[in-house]
Amino acid sequence: MPEGHTVHRLAAAIRTGFGGERVITSSPQGRFPEADALAGWTLADAEAAGKHLLLAFTPGPDVEAGAPVTRYVHVHLGLYGSWTFAGEEGFASAPAIGAPRLRVGEREDALGGAEPWREIVPRETVRLRIVGPRGLADLTGPTACEELDAAGRQAVLDRLGPDPLREDAEPERFVRRVLRSRTAIGTLLMDQSVVAGIGNIYRAELLFRARLDPTVPGRDLSEGMVRGLWEDLVPLIRYGARTGRIVTTQPEHRQIEARIVERSRGTRQNGDEDPTVVPREESFYVYHRQTLPCRLCRTTVRSGEMAGRTVFWCPRCQTRRVRRAGWTREHPAEAWAVA
Q1: Are 317 and 297 in contact (CB under 8 A)?
Q2: Catalytic: which of 2, 28, 162, 164?
Q3: Exactly one of 3, 47, 205, 282 is catalytic; which is it?
Q4: Pair (172, 271) in one structural domain
Q5: Could you tell me the pTM of the whole model?
Q6: Same structural domain, 124 and 102
Q7: Number of structural domains in the chain
Q8: Sheet of 21-22, strand order
Q9: Domain coverage including residue 265
Q10: Which end of the chain has fewer CB atoms < 10 Å from its terminal CB, N or C?
């Protein structure tokens, strides 16, 4: 499932490709019939909140997003959803965002002409297609794709915890929720009503960097420890939004036990084919490193189930005792320059 930084990148790609333009919307699959009523409207804005995407449509380019007439398309990609893009050069920042998919046109035959992307026939699995003057985007396999009014948009936002990538984020809400909860911190970090946008990778890596056992109840933590989690998350997830990659290791640790335990499809990130980025084998401390030695203490990294997902941790580095890490967690710009 895409984590929050990916959805923010997606919102930016849609704003770049369609922002302020009249678009044609359709539902080739037929499961989002509301698309027909929005055809010819202007895509005024694309907003990310945690793992949720909200597309604002207005009747024309002279109507601002948020006006009473605005309609919103709410999308949650879930485990299998993705957006794929095709268009003129520079139209979109990425060919595909979300679950692994072929790019638009890789299985269809374009008919040629000056703008061959216009001739691409959508696959029958496309829930929503958006076509603008410079390109198109296809949505397939989402968990949610629905039309909302302003009240519906606000209801989505109200049920989410603070998103560290949004300007309106309130970290105090996160701190209060954690400190008053008996629930394990490893579960709280995956609860989107506590903090929006964290997925399995950020959970595992944040807890390792904090030297914190995933099973510690939130109320057993100190206020400083909870604030530290937030303060560590913000630069990590901002880096992810900027580059499309999650890299949590510090440079001096990346060559130590530079391995991960691959799934059948592997842990894929944007730019894996680029030799200048930090490879995924060097990007994580514990995520998908179960059965391998910890990069710092060489204890075997463990895994187990928590909140319906696999959690990864080092039983020696991550103790139940609340204490600061034995090494300094830094986010200097030069440390990320090669990623």
Answers
A1: yes
A2: 2
A3: 3
A4: yes
A5: 0.89
A6: yes
A7: 2
A8: 21-22, 42-49, 52-58, 71-76, 144-148
A9: 160-336
A10: N
